[in-house]
Write a structure and sequence with these properties.
It contains two helices and eleven strands. By secondary structure, it is mainly beta. It comes from hydrocarbon metagenome.
């Protein structure tokens, strides 16, 4: 009897500790991975990447502690100027032929206020990996007209492009650089809820 009770105890413990794991995918038709960089100090140039994939895994529908991962195709860079985009794909910048993908591997997602989070992860560009912090705003979770659960997020952060080997530059006569050293990230992500599994 004692042995049976012990077995029942462990079975009950296992049931109580089971957590629902929710998978989310990027809805690319309603998302954007964008950036802004200064040009000759006097103006900003905006760009984006057209091709990317991403996943988020949460415990239930709580985004604190979420596992966030995404991959960007470097060749898909788009600043609305073909000549400039080809230069950005070259060895002066992304060396997209040699390093075709930019990756982000999330390490932590901490809630800092009601709808604000701090996302920390490893960003790899040109084979160089650096830890980066992104400020995340959860804009809400809703159900669309087709019954899909969607969650919207805005991510913001910055990086020093020189740290990732994107070192091409030319100084201008008035001082400063043709292309700014700091790149500002402005990312809008709409997630679609996929399969919930027990773990």
């Amino acid at each position: 009897m004692k042995k049976i009770n012990i077995i029942l105890y462990f079975l009950l413990f296992a049931v109580l500790t089971v957590s629902a794991q929710t998978n989310w995918s990027f809805d690319k038709s309603h998302s954007k991975i964008g950036f802004t960089v200064s040009h000759m100090v006097i103006t900003d140039v905006d760009g984006k990447f057209n091709e990317y994939e991403g996943t988020v895994v949460t415990e239930g529908e709580d985004f604190e502690g979420a596992h966030v991962n995404f991959t960007i195709e470097a060749n898909s860079i788009n600043t609305d100027n073909e000549r400039r985009d080809n230069h950005l794909r070259s060895d002066d910048f992304f060396a997209a032929d040699e390093y075709p993908q930019i990756t982000f591997a999330g390490k932590s997602m901490k809630k800092v206020s009601e709808n604000k989070y701090e996302l920390v992860g490893d960003l790899t560009i040109r084979g160089i990996t650096k830890e980066i912090k992104l400020d995340v705003t959860h804009n809400g979770t809703v159900q669309d007209p087709w019954g899909n659960t969607k969650a919207g997020f805005k991510l913001a952060g910055s990086l020093d492009r020189f740290e990732y080997g994107l070192k091409w530059n030319t100084a201008i006569e008035a001082g400063g650089l043709v292309v700014g050293k700091t790149v500002y990230l402005n990312i809008d992500i709409q997630l679609k809820k996929e399969v919930t599994t027990e773990s």
